[in-house]
Amino acid sequence: MIFTSRFAPSPTGHIHLGNARTALFAFWAARQSGGRFIVRMEDTDQARSPAELARVLLEDLRWLGLGWDEGPDCGGPHGPYAQMERLPVYDDLLQRLVDTGHAYPCFCTADELSAERDAQRAAGKAPRYSGRCRALSAAEVARRLEGGEEATLRFAVPCSGTLSVDDLVWGERSYDLADLGDFVLRRSDGSPSFFFANAVDDALMGVNLVLRGEDHLSNTPRQILILQALGLPVPQYGHLPLLQGSDGQPLSKRNGAASLRELRSAGYLPAALRNYLGQLGHHYPATHWRSDAELIAEFSLARIGRAPAHFDREQLQYWQEQALQHLGLDELVAWLRPHLTLVPDAQISGFVAAIRGNMLLPADAVAWAEACFHPLGRSEKVRAELAENGAEFWQQAQTCYKEQPDDFRAWTRQLAQQSGRKGRALFHPLRLALTGREQGPELAQLLSFIPPEEVLRRLAPIFS
Ligand SMILES: Nc1ncnc2c1ncn2[C@@H]1O[C@H](COP(=O)(O)OP(=O)(O)OP(=O)(O)O)[C@@H](O)[C@H]1O
């Protein structure tokens, strides 16, 4: 089947990994089937949707590697692609629902509705709208509307029967229509509800695959009722288990989940995120690094799991490491160059080649650059440890280095002979003295970036 799928975020905050995974899966499903992918802004919550956020959201999606055939920035045959620009479309369809008896104005106030819900809860019932205004006569509705009374528009849900939904992830689910309650299609301020605008936009834009978070699972029967009442096509739905944070709560724009923006500025690579997200709640046949073509070709709706997935930074770091290994040296240099201002241009390729196995993020590369190109500061603990090696060892280290400064093997071999040390006893204090760290890139390689006078200074840790 050729899928037209979409990602329809509310531009109310920076996109997080949960949103990003939902977007990626929808994008991959469309691309794999040779279909189309649409981005639509659900910006009807105007107070929380400044235009700037929508722009940033699109930028983040592009950075992640998504491309869309239709969207707010590139247009397309089913536009506009921001809901606030589609209000006339909704008005026409809402009128059609009123005319066909599928919708009615509701004058109940927020206080009345809340009292009704409290009473239902007190009686041990699930709260839902009683349908009080459905019984109003046409004359009364006209009188109250003419009198300027505020009204929402509600969908008249059939009083009995069931609705079955075959969800791509959850399988078949049956809903008792009597449990749904008449829901709001248009708020009293005239704006369309999520249920309504989201469902009709999908149908009008030719979307036949809706992949979205599990938070929308219970909206599905309502949306199908709307589409059926309007004679519009019903897409296939698949609800992805929500991605949770370490606190076990679903990631949300509202609870400050790690945003794509933050991960990007920390230096995570989009290809690392794609590989990481592709294996979160979706099982590829084997766990290994995949190119984009492989991620798409091997993606399968049938391999989406039902268990909630958890964001795990260590796993993300694993995929970042993989991403670095799969970058060519030139690409790595181009990526790191803006950060490595300390490294002279002529040395940058060699430097990056030396440290690439010992870094995950640009900040690590900067730290290695500082370790080589800046005078080294040392903690008390490191000083004490270096001092334990005794003045004679450091004297010998300096002398041997002065004799063969350009040949690491030769001077350490000579130092081994003079000091009687070998292996860790020899190299550990040297590494600590020269880099200030216990571990890191090949010392021989790093050393070529440290000016000789600085090497000598570092080899005199208990004299300086
Ligand atoms: N934690 C999550 N895991 C997976 N998908 C999610 C998660 N949170 C939201 N989504 C999905 O991302 C898509 C865009 O949703 P939306 O823009 O409303 O994000 P949101 O994080 O729920 O925002 P808000 O916090 O403002 O409600 C929807 O399909 C939604 O179901």
Strand order of the largest sheet: 3-4-7
Task: Supply the number of helical segments.
Answer: 20
C-alpha Rg (nearest Å): 31 Å
Bound molecules: adenosine-5'-triphosphate
The second-level CATH architecture of the domain at 89-186 is: Alpha-Beta Complex
Distance between the amino and carboxyl termini: 73 Å
Main sheet makeup: 3 strands, antiparallel
Tell how many strands the DSSP assignment holds: 11
Spans with pLDDT under 50 lasting ≥5 residues? none
Overall geometric form: elongated
Summarize the structure.
45% of the residues lie in helices and 10% in strands.
Folded structure, characterized:
- Its EC number is 6.1.1.17.
- A motif ('KMSKS' region) lies at residues 250-254.
- Among the domains are: 89-186, Glutamyl-tRNA Synthetase, domain 3 (Alpha-Beta Complex); 380-458, no CATH class.
- The chain is built from 20 helices and 11 strands.
- The protein has helices spanning 17-33, 51-64, 87-99, 110-122, 138-146, 194-204, 220-230, 260-266, 270-278, 292-297, 313-325, 329-336, 348-355, 362-373, 380-387, 390-403, 408-419, 423-435, 443-447, 452-458, and strands spanning 4-7, 36-39, 103-106, 152-155, 162-167, 171-176, 184-186, 209-213, 236-240, 243-244, 309-310.
- The strands form 5 sheets. Strands 3-4-7 form a 3-stranded antiparallel beta sheet.
- It binds adenosine-5'-triphosphate.
